[in-house]
Amino acid sequence: MPISLDTPRMESKFSFSDIPAHRQKSEMLAGAIAPITTPEMFKNPRCFQKPAAKSFEHRLNLEARSRGAATLKAAGAELNGDVISLGTGRPSPEYFPFLKMSMEFPSGPEFLENSKHRSSKEIGKYDIQDKKSAFDLAVSLNYGYSAGSEQLIRFLTEHVDVVHNPPYSDWQCSLTAGTTSAIDCVFRTFCERGDFIITEEYTYSATLEAARPLGVRTVGVPMDDHGLSASKLEGLLSGWDSPERGARKPFLLYLIPTGQNPTGVTQSLDRRREIYAVAERHDLYIIEDDPYYFLRLGYSKHTSATNGNEQTCPATEAVDSFLRELVPSFLSLDVSGRVLRLDSTSKILAPGLRCSWMTGSAEIISRFLFLHDATVVCPSGLSQLAVHTLLDEVWGHEGLIKWLIHLQSEYTERLNVMLQSCEKHLPRDICSWQTPKAGMFHWIKIDWRAHPMATSALKPEFERMLDIEDRVYCKGLRMGVMCCKGSTFRAGGAQDCDMFFRVTFASASLPQITEAIARFGKAICEEFNKAN
Amino acid sequence: MPISLDTPRMESKFSFSDIPAHRQKSEMLAGAIAPITTPEMFKNPRCFQKPAAKSFEHRLNLEARSRGAATLKAAGAELNGDVISLGTGRPSPEYFPFLKMSMEFPSGPEFLENSKHRSSKEIGKYDIQDKKSAFDLAVSLNYGYSAGSEQLIRFLTEHVDVVHNPPYSDWQCSLTAGTTSAIDCVFRTFCERGDFIITEEYTYSATLEAARPLGVRTVGVPMDDHGLSASKLEGLLSGWDSPERGARKPFLLYLIPTGQNPTGVTQSLDRRREIYAVAERHDLYIIEDDPYYFLRLGYSKHTSATNGNEQTCPATEAVDSFLRELVPSFLSLDVSGRVLRLDSTSKILAPGLRCSWMTGSAEIISRFLFLHDATVVCPSGLSQLAVHTLLDEVWGHEGLIKWLIHLQSEYTERLNVMLQSCEKHLPRDICSWQTPKAGMFHWIKIDWRAHPMATSALKPEFERMLDIEDRVYCKGLRMGVMCCKGSTFRAGGAQDCDMFFRVTFASASLPQITEAIARFGKAICEEFNKAN
After folding, report:
1. What is the residue extent of each domain of chain B?
2. Which of B88, B104, B380 sits opposite A100 (nearest CB)?
3. Is residue A340 within a helix (H) or strand (E), and if so which, with residue range?
4. Is A390 in contact with A279 (CB distance < 8 Å)?
5. Is residue A233 within 8 Å of A289, Cβ to Cβ?
């Protein structure tokens, strides 16, 4: 297809309303067991006018370079309709002891759990064959294709096209068996033992702990209110001294750009552009781990309702404005194909699904599929079926966005309760915080130097901080509240010596949040010998 | 607890009928989100009179030795009922958009797909809280414990206790995200780059392909009609020359003991004992990959029906005799705790579940759980819920065995059709086979030296065989049948130069099986210039 670079970028934008017509024009789903799916046909055709991604093959590690397609699966791909396969040992679906499944889902715009206003859907074993549905138990319960079922890939490709509109042509989506698994796959694809990867100075502890046993070290870059500092990133890379560090210059940049875990910071668009420019200059590969992308805070319908002036936007307008107000992702800025974006269903649908998705260049995605073949194969077929039924057949694209609008309002209310409780119960002279704009986490800084033991010990400063952090943590537990120590999240080489606690407003009920923060305030005051 | 080694082993045997009383006596399930489950309480209490497993810590690789528990999860374990957690970012179940699920399952003894005789079960979101059920959507859809849900671990622990009765005390079951994932976890726990592992001379190609990119090499041990040769295994180990091989002496033995893939061979009990004795002598660690354990062949109810004298055994008697006739597993012979047994739901329930289980010593299982925390976390909650509902709540332990009896009769019929077609269509002077006693595979040897091109080429013998194998394979495809080349399954160092094809009777319909073998016969005859 001809590449016309002077086509204005916005012209290639797809909207949810374009999708039904596009589905009608494009090829039918194969409806077969584990078909090798080329997601190209699900994309906005104007996408092919964009330039192709650059190659990042030089960034693959030995393990990834040694990996190819699974022989038996590759042989299966040679089959055409007339060939009878006596090849792979796939059981016949008649031996799957699951005959029918039905599910009930909440309906918008209220999405109330106890409302009678709910949608249900019944799924039979042979609905595809019987032309009743695009997906069924016979296919979802058999072995699956390593990128996931064509049915779900279609939905997610359309979703990514509309929401992120990646600026290169050959991007692809693949399912993952959850983002934790995807991050492990990242290490197994790019990193050698001894390598450094770059992260925010404080980052998700499970990522740090997944890297360590693989011999992958982290180097944290300081953050400010707009997220990871692009100039400090530039400084780290320009000044990298391989002999001194005992490692090659790092090229993998792991970021949590929205509602960062643990700090709650959301990178501004300008900051994202600056970081991407550094990545272009130093040929970095970016892992955009973005589970909180849609959980923006500060948009409460409840707040307006209290003010007596709640407004119900026309639904489509609400969807459009929600999408417009999202900070553009790194994927949407990625002219070179150097971003692997990890989306998660855990925070917007349910963690137990273990069925999330990633988006990147076809070259890199293909390496992950080889790895899937030898490890997780693909997410559970029942999870895929449940997610597809809900998103594609019941809610549709706009319905998902309306659900996200609902979540954003719920989490905003939770945050507000937590902030009010913090204002009331935490000693403001030693506790400080920023209001998070997205996510599930509130990050509280405590001035540990005000603690009676801050100067008394003979230990180095950092160890004194850790001692006091542990005292506050244990005192909290005794008072009946568990908060996470900030030190759990420190990447390698973190410079500061401040003390933080991460608290989440995602799990506990509203009264519990209030009570828990009150207990935490009491614990801090007792530790710091302050009146409460 | 006192260890009384002279207690006759049979006394400690548990039977399905003991389970209801034991469940009543033992502690209640926690009914919480991701509780850390100690499966001890689900076991036959007499189990604790057995000796403990030996330690195999000296067999762990650097990665496994560097791994510990995930910090946030470990912190969660410190919680008691009065502490409010603001710790891990687990969404509240009110935000899971799944309100209700119901499923329909076939009922025994016929288990017919189209029968009205079926069982159904409805699962609500808060059934545990509402005291309606042991498992629900709120718990299964949240983050899970790395060994799987307590509900399913209970069922599987009981199942393993009755079926395998491991002869040491501290064995444990954990779920896996499918056996492919479990095998990857095995390599990541025991093997260093450059190591050799021991396998059967022909083995599952996906295992070979999973090992290769990790730099793990395989050395195949020849087989006879009773499986891997114990004396050749002894010879390989006694004669291992590390400098010559450029690798330490191998200690990991990967076996598919029942209905072996690809050869269809089932190891006799005597052979298993001989192999285990070699393992004891050389301190091997055994991976018992046994997905076909329950798919025994040669027990067709249809055959008897044709003879007009079908007998319906009383159900419990049928269950007892089925269990009695299973060849004992390596797990059931494992006095030292040197076996990790991998069971699969893929061949007995459905591959799309990606939810299987493994059994081994507590020490080794704990290492796998650390790895799960950093990778797959645990299988899909919906898969766990579906499997638990079917096995525990609908069928029960005996119901599962009745389903397996049904499957064994179905697969026997499929095998019989294939064997009849082979007798009829394959040229017996160059094609030979054994009748498989278990599994899904039929292994056909073809005397390639009878091929017109067998002697003509200037190539080495092995390459000539491969050329002819490829000609037969391609001719088959052109004739409309796909069979798997035997060479795909050759482990490293395989000595023989024979030609095989693996065909499965699991997937195609009965008429297709007949037609496919007829086509394959025609392809062979054309290639070998024989009348068909």
Report:
1. 13-68+102-305+314-404, 408-527
2. B104
3. strand A339-343
4. no
5. no
Give per-residue pLDDT as tens, B121-173: 999 999 999 999 999 999 999 999 999 999 999 999 999 999 999 999 999 99
Mutation site for B-interface testing, chosen from A84, A101, A406 by largest number of B Cβ within 10 Å: A84
Q: What is the pLDDT of residue A8?
A: 42
C-alpha pair distances (Å), B330 with each of B9, B66, B269: 16, 29, 9
Rounded to whole angstroms, how far apart are CA atoms A264 and A297?
11
ipTM value of the model?
0.95
Task: Quick: pLDDT tens for B80-98.
Answer: 778 999 998 899 999 999 9
A88 → chain B, closest CA residue: B504
pLDDT range class, residue A527, cuts 50, 70, 90: very high
Written as six digits, the tokens of B149 are: 């849900």
Q: Give the whole-angstrom CA distance, residue B447 versus residue B501.
A: 11
Instruction: State the pLDDT at residue A317.
Output: 85
For residue A2, pLDDT beyond 60? no
Q: Which amino acid is at B362?
A: A
- Beta pairing, strands B252-255 & B285-289: parallel
| Alpha-carbon gap, residue B412 to B406, rounded angstroms | 10
Q: Does B88 touch chain A (CB under 8 A)?
A: yes
Report the gap between the CA of B408 and the closest CA in chain A (Å): 11
A192 near B CB under 8 A: no
Helix (H) or strand (E) holding B116: none
What is the residue type of B167? Answer: P
Q: In what order do the strands lie in the sheet with B441-446?
A: B431-432, B441-446, B499-504, B484-485
What sign results for the dihedral spanned by CA atoms B457, B459, B464, B468?
negative
Residue B495 class from Cβ within 10 Å (0-12 exposed, 13-18 middle, 19+ buried)? exposed
B191 vs A: CB within 8 A = no
Minimal CA separation from A17 to chain B, in Å: 24
CB B426 within 8 A of CB B521: yes
Does the structure show a pLDDT above 50 at B213?
yes
The domain A413-527 is placed in CATH, from the list 3.80.30.20, 3.90.1150.10, 3.30.70.20, 3.40.50.150, at: 3.90.1150.10
Distance CA B386, CA B390 (A): 6
CB contact under 8 Å between B98 and A87, yes or no, is no
Look at B177 and A376 and tell me if their CB atoms are within 8 Å: yes
Restricting to B residues 422-451, those with a Cβ less than 8 Å away from any Cβ of A are 440-441
What is the DSSP code string of B117-142? -EEEEEEETTTTTTTS-S--HHHHTS
Average pLDDT over residues B394-420: 97
Which CATH code, of 3.40.630.10, 3.30.300.210, 1.10.760.10, 3.40.640.10, is assigned to B13-68+102-305+314-404?
Answer: 3.40.640.10
Separation of alpha carbons A384 and A392, rounded Å:
11
Token duo for residue A323: 């999408």
The fold of the B408-527 domain, in CATH, is Aspartate Aminotransferase, domain 1 (3.90.1150)
Share of chain B above pLDDT 90, in %: 83
> What tens digit of pLDDT does each residue of B418-459 get?
999 999 999 999 999 999 999 999 999 999 999 999 987 689
**Interface touch A95/B410, C-beta < 8 Å:** yes
Query: Is residue A526 exposed (0-12), middle (13-18) or buried (19+ Cβ within 10 Å)?
Result: middle
Task: Please give the single-letter amino acid code of residue A270.
Answer: D
The size of chain B, in residues, is: 532
Q: Which tokens in the block code for residue B15?
A: 């039977």
Considering only CB atoms, B352 lies closest to which of A72, A141, A441, namely: A141
Q: How confident is the model at residue A304 (pLDDT cuts 50, 70, 90)?
A: very low
Burial label, A451 (beta-carbon count in 10 A; 0-12, 13-18, 19+): buried
